[in-house]
Specification:
- The chain has 290 residues and is α+β, with helices and mostly antiparallel strands.
- The protein has one domain: 2,3-Dihydroxybiphenyl 1,2-Dioxygenase, domain 1, CATH 3.10.180.10.
- The protein has 6 helices and 18 strands.
- The strands form 3 sheets. An 8-stranded mixed β-sheet has the order 2-3-4-1-15-18-17-16, covered by helices on one side. Strands 6-7-8-5-11-14-13-12 form an 8-stranded mixed β-sheet, covered by helices on one side.
- Strand 12 and strand 13 form a beta hairpin.
- It is globular, with a radius of gyration of 18 Å.
- The relative contact order is 0.19.
- The mean pLDDT is 96.
């Protein structure tokens, strides 16, 4: 973690909130998030649906008929990562997602800090389903957390962790948005914005192609990469990512960030309990009191 003063950092107990997606086909996407991922409609607002677990919204599907699916090389969402409380709950959702649409599964990996399985929703938005290994087993090399991408065979994982009880109780198993991973135009600009201005701490990089950042010593709450999008400029108005919500404990945290954005010359809208602004690629962010 960097040596920034605490007043320049986001609070250690920050959490990721709802990810809003602009959606072309609400029925198609709703069926996927409900039936494949085992999420429930927990709220309805402005024609949009909030899907989540145990009353907690995770993904907000907002109708945006007429917009196009973004190109693979454009800035925007790489994936929304849903974090599960135990391996059985993760396995149950992997199983329903794979059964619903086998072609949506795109890979899996043991990242040393977590076990992750990757899917793509019907409109091309990436999804990660993952479980965190115990934090006391994470290895740190100075300020960087040690991560890797080791093989994690899905069939073996399901054989070891899937149970009838977990499938039957899928909707009663808690989940949260663990992190959000973006596609950006260049990593240095991402670090200037997300670390130096917003106040995340850099926890890892990858050969100048990816940046991982967090608050409070988590492996990462957000990540940015250029694997598909190197050189990308500001986003067009497309389907896909609409907004990322970051939750903080108090209005003082929101106010401190508003001051940092103002000092950096970044335009924002501050209501007192929340702050709305955009990153250099026009990805919309909202920091709100939890």
């Amino acid at each position: 973690m960097t040596a920034a003063s605490t007043q320049d950092l986001l609070p250690a107990d920050l959490t990721m909130g709802t990810v809003m997606l602009k959606v072309g086909d609400m029925k198609l996407m709703g069926d996927y998030y409900g039936n494949a991922l085992g999420l429930d409609v927990v709220a309805e607002q402005d024609g949009g649906l909030y899907y989540g677990r145990l009353g907690k919204p995770l993904v907000h599907l907002a109708p945006a008929v007429g917009l196009q699916i973004p190109g693979r090389s454009e800035a925007g969402l790489f994936h929304t990562a849903l974090l599960f409380e135990d391996r059985a709950a993760l396995a149950a959702t992997i199983a329903t997602a794979a059964q619903y649409e086998p072609r949506a599964f795109v890979g899996s990996a043991d990242h040393l800090v977590s076990e992750a399985f990757y899917f793509t929703d019907p409109e091309g938005n990436g999804i990660e389903l993952y479980y965190d290994k115990p934090r006391d087993g994470w290895e740190w090399n100075g300020t960087s957390v040690v991560m890797d991408s080791l093989p994690l065979p899905p069939q073996r994982y399901l054989q070891e962790h899937l149970s009838e009880e977990a499938v039957a109780g899928q909707h009663a198993a808690g989940a949260g948005v663990g992190h959000v991973h973006l596609q950006v135009g260049d990593v240095q600009t991402a670090q200037d914005f997300y670390v130096d201005t917003l106040g995340f701490e850099r926890t890892a990089g990858w050969h100048g192609q990816a940046l991982f950042v967090s608050a409070g010593g988590y492996h990462h709450h957000m990540a940015m990469n250029v694997w598909n999008s190197r050189g990308a400029g500001p986003r067009r108005d497309t389907l896909g990512l609409g907004e990322v919500v970051i939750e903080v404990p108090s209005g003082d945290d929101v106010g401190a960030l508003a001051d940092r954005l103002k000092a950096a010359g970044i335009e924002s809208h501050h209501t007192g309990l929340e702050l709305r602004f955009e990153d250099p690629w026009r990805n919309r962010l909202r920091v709100a009191v939890r």
